[in-house]
Design brief:
Order of helices and strands: EEEEEEEEEEEEHEEHE
Strand order of the largest sheet: 1-2-3-4-5-8-9-10-12-13-14-15
Strand content: over 45%
Number of strands: 15
Distance between the termini: 20 Å
Helix content: under 10%
Radius of gyration: 20 Å
Number of helices: 2
Shape: globular
Largest sheet: 12 strands, antiparallel, barrel
Length: 259
């Protein structure tokens, strides 16, 4: 059984291929909003889909795994991945803001620097079941690189619809993020704090998300593709002084080719 939960811009599947490789590319335009303070959104011009599914081993757009149970209805796998939250911290800028002690009298502008954060290597388990009713995926990952020391629990459900050359796949999901994980990325250490950026400890929280991918196939290889995603950061992350937006919104539209 193949893993079915896509990244934001994964090209929807056409028919099952004999090759264990899944290769696709889409060119167009898209953007992913960045919730951090004083940062640029993330533009997207090219979307790559690179995956390999062997009898047990698989590589799926950066995730590496080994399936140890496959009943045809349910698969169970051990996996490794890099924590994706780090991508937000690669586009930070230094800004100056006015900080007032009374709300009326402004002091001299002070420098605001969003703290940097590292990628974390995580390992965990994934359960996946799919059928005519859709797909259900549950996973649990823990930091094995001693970067944040926390864990995440994920649950996703989606279903695909095909009508002629059109293919639609909506899905919804939720992620529980432990206090250690949340605080590492969204907290502010005392040594990073300033007059404009107070120290902050983030606790555990749940992110909610909804995705939609759609494609129109001209042939087995060529298609128009569109993807959109909305994710609501948990309140503990959204209340951080380095966060300006609680919602993360992404979209992409373009022409895709499946090899």
């Amino acid at each position: 059984m193949r893993r079915l939960v896509p990244c934001l811009l994964l090209l929807p599947l056409f028919a099952a291929a004999e090759s264990p490789w899944r290769l696709g590319v889409a060119m167009g335009y898209g953007e992913r909003s960045n919730p951090l303070l004083n940062v640029d959104d993330i533009p997207i011009a090219v979307d790559l889909d690179i995956a390999y599914f062997g009898e047990r081993f698989f590589f799926d757009n950066g995730d590496v795994g080994l399936t140890f149970v496959d009943t045809g209805l349910v698969t169970a796998s051990v996996m490794a991945r890099l924590r994706s939250d780090r991508v937000f911290f690669g586009r930070t800028n230094t800004r100056f803001v006015n900080v007032g002690t009374t709300g009326q009298v402004l002091e001299a502008p002070v420098e605001v620097i969003v703290p940097d954060r590292d990628y974390a290597a995580e390992a965990g388990f994934e359960l996946l079941s799919d059928g005519r009713w859709g797909f259900l995926q549950a996973s649990a990952f823990h930091d094995v690189s001693a970067t944040h020391g926390g864990y995440e629990l994920d649950l996703d459900y989606g279903v695909g619809f095909r009508a002629g050359a059109w293919y639609l796949r909506p899905s919804v999901g939720a992620s529980y993020k432990s206090a250690e994980l949340n605080d590492y990325y969204w907290g502010v250490r005392p040594g990073e704090a300033s007059a404009a950026l107070p120290a902050y400890d983030a606790g555990a929280g749940i992110n909610l998300r909804a995705r939609l991918s759609a494609s129109y196939h001209f042939s087995r290889n060529w298609m128009l593709t569109f993807s959109a995603e909305y994710e609501r950061l948990n309140d503990e992350a959204a209340d951080s002084p380095i966060v300006s937006e609680q919602a993360v919104i992404g979209y992409f539209a373009g022409v895709g080719y499946r090899f």
